[in-house]
Amino acid sequence: MLGYYAVLAIRSLSRDIALTLLMVLTIAIGIGASMTALTVYHVLARDPYPGRSGKLFRPQLDPRQYADRSKTNLHAGAEEPYIQLSWIDAMNLLHAHRADRQAVMSTGSFRVELPDGKVRPSHSFGLYTTTDFFPMFGAPFRYGAAWSEADDERGTRVVVITDTLNDMLFGGANSVGHIVVLRGVPFRVVGVLDHWQILPRIYGSYQAIELSDVYEAYIPLTSAIDADLHPAGSRRCWDEKVPFPPDNRQKKTAPCAWLQMWVQLDSAAKVAAYRDFLIHYSEDQKAIGRFQRPPNVRLRSVTQWLEAFHAVPDDARVQVWLAFGFLLVCLINATGLMLAKFMRGIGNVGVRRAMGASRRAVFAQLLVEAGMIGVAGGLIGLVLAYGGLWLLRQQQDGDIDYATLVHMDVGMLIISIVIALASSLLVGLLPAWRACQVSPALQLKTQ
Amino acid sequence: MDLKPILSALLRHKVVLFLLVLVIALSCGVVSNSVFLMTLHLERLHMPAGFDEDRLVEINADTLLTPHSDEAKRRTRETADALRQIPGVQGVTLSNQVPLDYSAFFPGYIALNEKDAESRSGVLVAVYGGEEFAKTLGLRLVAGRWLNPLGFVDYADVFKPGSVLAPSEALITTALAKRVWPGQNPLGKQFYFTSGKPPTTVVGVVEHLPRPNAIYGPGEEDYSIVLPMRLWLDDGVYYLLRTADPSQRQQVLHAAVDTLHRLDPHVAIMSQRPVTDARKEQLGKDLAMARMLAGLCVTLLLITGLGIVGLSSYWVQQRRRHIGVRRALGATRTDILRYFMLENFLLTSLGVMLGMALAYGLSALLMHYYELPRLPWFYFPLGAVALWVTGQLAVLAPALRASCISPAAAAAG
What we know:
The structure holds two protein chains of two kinds. Chain A folds into two domains: 2-47 and 313-446, no CATH class; 62-296, no CATH class. Chain A is built from 15 helices and twelve strands. Chain A has helices at 2-15, 17-45, 87-96, 133-137, 149-154, 163-170, 221-226, 248-251, 268-287, 302-308, 314-344, 346-354, 359-394, 410-435, 440-446; strands at 56-60, 101-113, 122-129, 141-144, 158-161, 179-182, 185-193, 215-220, 236-237, 256-257, 260-264, 298-301. The mean pLDDT of chain A is 86. Chain B is an alpha+beta fold. Chain B is elongated and about 105 Å long. The two termini of chain B are 28 Å apart. Classes of the chains: A alpha+beta, B alpha+beta. Chains A and B meet through helix 2, strand 2 and helix 11 of A and helix 2, helix 4, strand 13, helix 9 and helix 11 of B.
């Protein structure tokens, strides 16, 4: 039966080529535009750390003075505490070992060269961090391994470099044990990372969420600070009279927040306990006079962090709204056209009904016709969406900083196909229903 | 022409009418908001720089010098002098940040009394420093005078812990003057840019000087001050070189990098580019969004137009007999044409009315969720006109076809 309906549909559609093409194109453009926008949104909103994001939390403390009324972050309200920690607080939280894992970090940039001077000095960004960083964020090693906790404590001059830097300095060979000179200080390579990129990144020093991956070296925090590698990025000092000191040793005692921290908490009970710990810690600091305000802490999971600091740019959200408004216009338009098309062929319906076809049979036949248009539109729409994403990726030179990330994955492809099918049925439903309402006698009479 | 027959004819096709009006309304709502969003992005794109950005190149270099040492100061002078000798270079300054750039942002507050300075509740500004900064950038003075070259102090001395030193004078921008001292002459006014220091006096007003980093609310992009501060070679200091001719920028950049390598074989160049590159990178996003929105509007109007063509054709075909009868009864071709045009105008108007309400609602949503400004009133008629024109153009072909229907069609089946 379905085959026969399909033949009927093709015959009917080919009678009105222009109208058919118009309907197919309308649906295709609508699907194409909305799928492009939705894919961009999906890429930006996806979980960057699947399997980990529910376990990683960002502790925040509020050391601000009572009188301080400046906003700490563009996206947050006046109550939002600093997103970074001072050296004293970060070290206290780190050494308390209250979480399953904990890592403190800061971004810096420094000159990179080899001791024999064989390569021209270059400049790299690196992350100064503690050893738990690697298992917490799942960094893969090609050669060697992370440094030890003892290295963190002693400030051993060791470094983990990325495959990119390893290719540049050592031609991709196993460089574990070799020396690289960072800002005039020798560091021993203990590990080389495999290609690894997770974006958006949530532990950078410049913004709460960063969209470019620039790190080429990972260095134990203590050794980096002691070797006078400068931390870069934003920082907040809560005492107006004490600006951020240029000297690294003074940074350790300064009332300035310039370090990021993430902790891993494996159960809900531990999360609650850690929150209590932060509150008690704040109370203690208030008691000894370091903090002024009553405890004001945050302990956001990765998901909450991405939400709070607008991982998805407003532009991308607005685009999704506009694109779906656009799809709606296209679908309603196609519905109108489909209605016109069916009404034009209403004589055939009348004949079929008079010859004994049930209302349901006519309805099914018309739906097949609508479905064919919808499927064709949906397929062309998918091709258009791929084209749209391809165009987006071509804007590489910094126009859109997430451009290289946008690809349609299997999940998005399935969603697209479902939306395309649903749209085509929606488009067909009303016209088919209207058309089969016709009473056969009346229709035949007007013929 | 009497509207009554048109209306009663329209009401016989309620479903089609409803769909068409809905499409026009949605289209109108989306188009007026999109055009507005587009102008917002274009405005940012065409924001006046207020300095000769197309003549400037920036270099960020890393040396192994101990910051603020005598050695560093001596080397700074040597380097700056060597850079000035490069053919095509008109001026050199070492600055803490670059306007419209996206790396660093050195903040300060304009507070009118010490209490506000303490609570940092003044206006957030970008604090620029550097010897010959204003001259190298080509800032334009609109009131007062330039900074006194004898009043320059070391940047590091101002910002070191416990320092009570503050530069005695400052340049501010027109926009900032209007914000802090509305309706008053800003010259001679005093402010605190950080607490625990004596006040600084405004001695000059420059037309524009944008902040770096593009993180600002609407109208805040020009909130900057220039203080008489001297910078020495250190991490995060930018060389800004002014070229005599914009076409020489690449040449000057290469020569400058070579000079830096010659003076210090250990120097590592962190970045080197014409200053306009940073702006292009930053504002390219605005351009991309504006292009996307323009494309959306055009496609949307096209789709709506094609929909009207399709439905009107159907209508014309359905009413062949009626049209034939009217022609037989003496209606001219123009009457028929006018009938369909007027009919389209009526239903577009209905859609536009709904569409304006929709545009208002959409704008309210965008305002609430994305901190966008309210849709200005003139975008409402703009959306209406766009849809009216689209509608009339779209109905033209079917209406012309209708007007060609012969009176004989009255008799045919």
